[in-house]
Amino acid sequence: xxxxxxxxxxxxxxxxxxxxxxxxxxxxxxxxxxxxxxxxxxxxxxxxxxxxxxxxxxxxxxxxxxxxxxxxxxxxxxxxxxxxx
Length: 85
Hints:
The protein is of the alpha+beta class. The chain is 20% helix and 22% strand. The strands form 2 sheets. The protein has a two-stranded antiparallel ribbon. Strands 2-3 form a two-stranded antiparallel sheet. This is Biogenesis AIM24.
């Protein structure tokens, strides 16, 4: 698991960071080379984007950055927008 996708975990889960790859992949490989290893009983909460990319997307859609509200496929569609005005 990418370490940037981990949000929270219970105390019963053992968490460790592992280096994956070799020197060649570390120099030429692209994104991260460290992954989280999670073992044991318990609960783990993940997010689909690493925190840095999630924060970038939130900032890009914020009004002060010139972003606009974009519907993300809600079951309610535009019905929820009536309450925003």
